[in-house]
Structures are given as C-alpha cells and as structure tokens.
Write a structure and sequence with these properties.
10 helices; mainly alpha; 202 residues
Length: 202
Amino acid sequence: MGNPRMSGATGGATSPPGSATARDGLVAAFVTEHAASLFRTALLLTGDRHRAEDLVQDVLTMLLPKWHRVAEAERPVAYVRRSLANQFISANRRCDTQVLLLGEVPEVDPKPDHADAVASSVTLWPMLRELPPRQRAAVVLRYFHGWTDVEIAAALDCRRGTARSLISRGLEALRSTLTTDGSDAEPRTDPAVPLTDQEVGR
C-alpha cells in the first residue's frame, strides 16, 4: 500500500522541517504504520479491494500537499479516516450507479483492529455492502472504529441528529437483514464500545 514516490524519503541527510523531503518522510512513516488499517476501512466502505486501494491512494495523494493539517490534528489517523469517508461519499454522488463486488479479503498484515475482524466476517461483510453510502460510512465509523455522534457528524459534514439518524437507519437495516437470514443475534447498540471480534464474527 505504500506509495513508491514516498519510499526512501527518510534516508540521507536531515532536511529542514518544512521541506518537501521532510514532509514525505512523515507521510511515509504514517503510511507504514496505518496503511493496513486505512485499507480495511476503505474495504468496508467500498466493498471491493481494487476500489479500496484506489480510495486510499486518492485520499493520500489529495492530502499530501496539505499534510501539515494531518500532522497537526489531534488524531492524524482519524483525520485521514474522515477523508476516506468523505471521498467515498463524494465519489458515489458522482456516479449514477454503484458497482459493488464481494471478493476475498486480502491478507495484509499489521495490527488487527475491529475493521480487520469485520472485513473477515462472512455475516456482516455482505450485509454492509447493501447499505447506502452515507449510512454505511456512519455505521463503519461508529461500530467498527468507536466514533461518537459528534465525530461522525463532523466527518460527514452534517448535524449530530442527522448522524444519529443515519446510524439508526443503518442499524435497523442490518437487523432486518439478520432477521431475514434467520439469525437470532442482534447487533449490539452501545455507541461507546466498538464491536468485539467475537461479535463481528457471528
């Protein structure tokens, strides 16, 4: 997932803090640490590995000239995740139809998170891809990353009440699908705690 243009940026002599080389070094380090997690988020949003790769690459390319905003954010990875959600929704607004392909989740190492577990779930994975883009983004940010209503509203550029409505409608759709499929399990609705690996693997 690393950008070839960024590789090797940290080598050689020390560059001035504001230089492009210093910036690229920071970006390269960020990508090395968070690429897998961001890819999982993009995979949950898009439902397709190739579109997920494109989404992450497009967002990183878009953020590169203004990386200082990412670096100065309280949670840089959350800033980029928010950009993923916005770019995903914007791209779907520009399309008359949305093609979603369900493929095998690729094996990408690093540190497993809730999105990682969900992406491997045979139950929730196909259900998520049926949600409209904004509902899907809200549900992914809430239940797979533990974001608050306020954070989701800021990410989706809407009011808190709208964010709650998107989450509620998305959750209701998931419940309806579970019922249709004959499952007795219901998604947990505590907004403060992301789903556990056991729950997402139901």
